[in-house]
Amino acid sequence: MKSLKKMNMTPIEDLITEDFGPIGSPQRDQFEIECDAFIIGEQLKEERLRAGLTQEQLADRIGTKKSFISRVEKGRADIQLSTLVKLFRGLGKQISVRVL
């Protein structure tokens, strides 16, 4: 397989570093946090849709508001681990956390 440089392409890591700074910089750390929040939101939305639930139905199940579910799914809510567990339990799912 050809290398990215031979194909005149830039590795994604280089592009991210160019836009958000090196790993460990404040701007890069914020970018990583926002990416993680987006991924969690997408996973929640995917599982909710798979369960055939609306945001409002999920909110009712766990005792919160539809607007909160919406913010989490859009990656715009800073939530505690206990809330994350509660959200996925409302869908009949479990979560696990890994330290890398």
General description of the model:
With 100 residues, the protein is mainly alpha-helical. The chain has a domain at 24-89: 434 Repressor (Amino-terminal Domain). The chain has 5 helices and no strands. α3 (55-62) packs across α4. The two termini are 29 Å apart.
Please name the defining characteristics of this protein.
434 Repressor (Amino-terminal Domain), 5 helices, mainly alpha
Distance between the termini: 29 Å
CATH architecture of the domain at 24-89: Orthogonal Bundle
CATH class descriptor name of the domain at 24-89: Mainly Alpha
Q: Based on CA inertia axes, which overall geometry fits?
A: elongated
Global Rg: 17 Å
Mean pLDDT: 93
Helix percent reads 55-70%
Strand content: under 5%
Give the SSE string: HHHHH
Decide which structural class fits the backbone.
mainly alpha
> Any low-confidence stretches, pLDDT <50, length ≥5?
none
Tally of individual helices:
5
CATH superfamily of the domain at 24-89: lambda repressor-like DNA-binding domains
Oligomer: single chain
Q: Could you give the count of β-strands?
A: 0
Largest sheet descriptor: none
Give me the CATH fold name of the domain at 24-89: 434 Repressor (Amino-terminal Domain)
What's the topology here?
Elements (H helix, E strand, L loop, with lengths): L11 H9 L5 H25 L4 H8 L3 H8 L7 H9 L11
